[in-house]
Specification:
alpha/beta; Glycerol-3-phosphate (1)-acyltransferase; 7-stranded mixed sheet; 7 strands
């Protein structure tokens, strides 16, 4: 990469952060002053999409017809902090995101996410984790559409890791179809450990639903692996989950 390209990437990265900061400020104002959860979700989605538009980031979305008109659970691979903003921008506004509980420790982020309908799952304290898991399952049983990143975290290297079971327990208990979603390009744009984002094309592939009655809906561990394999096929990335982990995982109905 020559110095001209490097310089452009630095300037673009600074501009992207400025645009993101402006979008966050606008979202905070909306979270405070806009009444009604549905209205706040629409504003947040509009601001997220505007962020990609003003930065000139090309986003390709395929398979929108695979999203059912009724409630469902979306599960996606996780490669960057950009993933959540990207899905917020291009999925229908009815979806509520399931966020790691550590975000409760960041007051501004917690307020913004909570006011836009996000749910939180504690990962470090067993009592909090069990409580949050029960609330997520209840939300699914009540017909709430949810978005999970079931890997739980992201890493620099390419590939898809083991899926945690929470999303799939909620799907089975709530009898909601699971929609696997493959996200491409965000790891290069803003990988783990990098501060300045780089311009890159992004892609969202919304895959066919795994619905109640499908053979892969027989239990949460089977469902998790079926969704993960569908995403892996589209991404053409390494499988980072040891085969023995997935084979030995107990089923939860």
């Amino acid at each position: 990469m020559n110095w001209v390209t490097r310089g452009f990437h630095v300037l673009w990265g600074i501009y992207a952060w400025l645009a993101f900061s402006a979008a966050v400020l606008a979202a905070l104002l909306a979270a405070i002053f806009v009444p009604g959860m549905n209205r706040r979700q629409r504003v947040a989605a509009t601001l997220a999409r505007a962020l990609f538009i003003v930065t000139g980031t090309r986003v390709t979305v395929t398979g929108v017809d695979n999203l059912p008109p009724d409630h469902c659970i979306v599960v996606a691979n996780h490669a960057s902090y950009v993933d959540g903003v990207l899905l917020k921008a291009y999925l229908p506004g009815r979806f509520n995101f399931v966020i790691k509980g550590e975000m409760r420790d960041i007051p501004v982020a917690h307020f913004l996410l909570r006011r836009s309908g996000s749910k939180f799952v504690e990962r470090k304290q067993l009592s909090g984790s069990a409580r949050d898991a029960r609330q997520i399952v209840k939300a699914a049983q009540d017909g709430v559409s949810l978005v999970f990143f079931p890997e739980g975290t992201f890493r620099k290297e390419r590939g898809v890791g083991r899926f945690r079971g929470g999303a799939f327990v909620a799907a089975v208990r709530g009898e909601l179809p699971v929609i696997p979603v493959a996200i491409s390009g965000t790891r290069y744009l803003l990988p783990a450990g990098r501060f300045l984002p780089r311009p890159n094309r992004l892609r969202i592939d919304i895959l066919a639903a795994i619905a109640p009655g499908d053979p892969d809906f027989s239990g949460s561990s089977v469902l998790a692996e079926a969704a993960r394999q569908k995403i892996l096929i589209v991404l053409d990335e390494p499988d980072l989950a040891p085969r023995k982990d997935t084979a030995a995982a107990p089923q939860t109905n």
